[in-house]
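Hey, resending since the last one bounced:
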Amino acid sequence: MKTLLYFLLVALPVLATAQTRPNIVLIYADDLGYGDTSAYGATAIKTPNIDRLAREGLRFTDAHAAAATCTPSRYAMLTGQYAWRKKGTGVLPGDAAMVIDTKQATLASMLQKAGYTTGVVGKWHLGLGPQGGPDWNAEIAPSPNHIGFNYSFIMAATGDRVPTVYVENNRVVGLDPADPIKVDYTKPIGDWPTGKANPDQLKMHPSHGHDMTIVNGISRIGYMTGGKAALWKDEDMADVFTGKAVQFIERQKAKPFFLYFALHDPHVPRVPHPRFVGKSGMGPRGDAILQADWSVGEVVKTLDQLRLANNTIVIFTSDNGPVVDDGYKDDAVVKLGSHKPAGPLRGGKYSNFEAGTRVPFIVRWPKQVRRGISNALVSQVDFLASFAAFTKQSLAQNDAPDSQNLLSALLGKTGTGREHLVEQASSLSIRVGQWKYIEPNRGPKVSAYTNVEMGHDPDGQLYNLSTDISETRNVAKQYPERVREMSALLQKLRPSGASR
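The structure tokens again:
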């Protein structure tokens, strides 16, 4: 009896701490723009579940992905290191090796050490396996499970890239060993038809590129053969990912958990479930946004049903800005109407302008996070240092070299964010307060493929976002000293190896 009493006296404080430590759910949309939700002013489309998070939480107006494309944004978000510091972190093919070193600290490994059960569900796009890429027919390592995640259910890259299969905890789901998968991004393999040679077999045609192996009536980037029993069906992808996210929450409801739920919507190919088709009036892209909102709603509903909402920090954001035509003829341009995916911002995915990295960003933690709007300058690269401080974890000197502790800003305790932020696209830009400097670039003004304004200028650009949020007036010639100061700061940060 004395032994039991002693155990209770020792264990109860620990259990109480575990039960009161909040869960963390990070919902990461794909190619969702600053103006794509009604929470951020859209009127042509309604996103009630995202709106609810904004209404019950803190909506940021100057929050950024670390880059204007997906792989570098995800790399920086998980590692706390600007992706432009590391070679090989550009947009990856589907057979790329893992770009995060297993010895690196990640958001997941840090939270794992803090006592969280960690899971990732959805789009990965950070590579898998060793140098040379993964063996899809064996155990895949390294994988998310080797950099801090206890559980993973992912797609290797994107929906428009092969292999078109799911990977759960290091193994391709549903793979028949008698039908091994082969993938190649340099030359055709096998006898599967391609979109280029067999357009009559397509239910969605490419607008540029995306004309290699056909899977489910859609031609992709890259060549693939084998694994027929494991192939995904695009129309069911959101249901599959959302179901896995909900199951993870249900399994972990009794102890603190971190869920990184990486939506595929509204990335191409936009093939939403039939129950969403035609509902937006804006074609597949709008329908995919409605589907993304549904996925958010299912997660929030699960937290409500399990009575976890009050003890769960939910963050909703996107990996980069919007793109309308990104490789398929899906009526996204024709049916866009009055909708402005970037809202008042200029540019979009791939662009040096603000719409490349400024994204929707909402934090909800009932009774803890102040409701309302924050104008603080924050970045996803700051998650690691901020949540390390939140969970009282120490970071080594070389960990998360560009991540800053912005916990007070994220929780709404202050309206002050970063002093400066480097934005990555085809060039680097730097923000200092409301001033933005874009370094010189001689590239095309507008992308010939996506029709996105790229923000290139051979002389560099300076904008005062407080009076010109749409970046229409380059004032570099009026403020040459400010240009020199910001250019010098950018050049100082570039070789430094760290900004923290």
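The mean pLDDT is 95.

Sorry for the duplicate.
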